[in-house]
Design goal:
Length: 250
C-alpha cells in the first residue's frame, strides 16, 4: 500500500510539472486546445455554415441578384467606378437577322432583365434606385446566412439587428443611424457597415415609418436656408449605406 501511494505521488508530480517545462509557448497549445474544444461543442449549423460565396446552397439567381444590387453601392461607399462591359465583336461583325427594335426583350434571360432593371436609374448621388433589399421565405431557407456571406464578399462589415426587439421607434431610429452612418472601429481593417434587419415583418408600423423616412431623405445642400441645415442635422444625414431586410411573411 505504501509503494502504491508513493508511485501515485510521483505520477501526480510528473503530471503537474509537465506543462511548465514542455513548451516555450504556453499560449499556442492553450489556443489550439480551446479551438478544438469550441469546435467539438459548437452546433452543426454553426460548424458547417457557409463562409464564402461559392459555398452557398441557396438559389443562384437570388444570390446573384443580391450581389449585383450590393455592388451598385460601390461608387458611393468605396468610390469605385463601375467596370464597363466590352461589346462582343461577333455581334458587330454579324448583325442579327431580325430587327432588334421589334422585340428588344424577347431573347434576354431573366438575369439580364433583372440587371437592367437594377441599373435603370441612379440618383444624383450615384446610389441605386432601390435603397433596400428584402429577402423573404420560410425559416431555415438561409436568408440570414446569404445576407452575411454576400456582405462580407462585397467588402462590408455585416451589422445585424432584430426589428422585433426594438419596439420603440426612437431606439429603432438610433440603431439604424448608428449602423449606417458610423464606421466600424474593430480591428485594423476598417470596413463600411452593411445593415441587416432581421424579422422586419415583426416591427410595428411606427418603426417601418422611421425606416421609410431614413430611406427617403433628400439632400438639402442646395437650399441654403439655415432652417433646412438645422433640420438636416437634427434628422441625420443622407443614407449612404445599403440595408438588407429579412422577413418570413412578405
Amino acid at each position: 500500500r505504501r509503494r502504491v501511494l508513493e508511485a501515485s505521488q510521483q505520477l501526480t508530480e510528473i503530471i503537474s510539472s509537465e506543462p511548465s517545462s514542455e513548451s516555450p509557448e504556453p499560449g499556442g497549445d492553450r489556443d489550439a486546445g480551446a479551438e478544438e474544444d469550441s469546435a467539438a461543442h459548437c452546433l452543426w449549423v454553426d460548424k458547417f455554415t457557409p463562409r464564402r460565396y461559392m459555398e452557398l446552397l441557396s438559389d443562384d439567381y437570388t444570390n446573384r441578384c443580391l450581389l449585383k444590387w450590393l455592388k451598385l453601392w460601390d461608387m458611393v461607399v468605396f468610390g469605385k467606378e463601375k467596370a464597363l462591359k466590352k461589346a462582343k465583336p461577333s455581334t458587330a461583325a454579324h448583325p442579327p437577322f431580325s430587327h432588334p427594335k421589334e422585340h428588344p426583350n424577347k431573347w434576354k434571360t431573366k438575369v439580364q432583365l433583372t440587371e437592367e432593371a437594377l441599373e435603370a436609374e441612379l440618383d444624383q448621388h450615384k446610389r441605386p434606385k432601390y435603397k433596400v433589399a428584402l429577402l423573404c421565405g420560410p425559416p431555415g431557407l438561409g436568408k440570414t446566412t446569404l445576407a452575411h456571406v454576400i456582405a462580407r464578399h462585397a467588402g462590408y462589415n455585416a451589422v445585424e439587428m432584430n426589428a422585433s426587439d426594438d419596439r420603440s421607434p426612437e431606439v429603432f431610429r438610433t440603431r439604424i443611424e448608428a449602423a449606417t452612418q458610423m464606421r466600424s472601429v474593430l480591428g485594423a481593417d476598417e470596413k463600411p457597415n452593411c445593415l441587416i434587419i432581421d424579422e422586419i415583418d415583426g416591427a410595428p408600423a411606427a418603426s417601418i415609418n422611421v425606416l421609410l423616412s431614413i430611406i427617403q431623405r433628400k439632400d438639402v445642400e442646395g437650399e441654403g436656408a439655415a432652417g433646412a441645415g438645422r433640420r438636416r442635422r437634427r434628422e441625420g444625414g443622407l443614407l449612404l449605406r445599403p440595408i438588407i431586410c429579412i422577413c418570413n411573411d412578405q
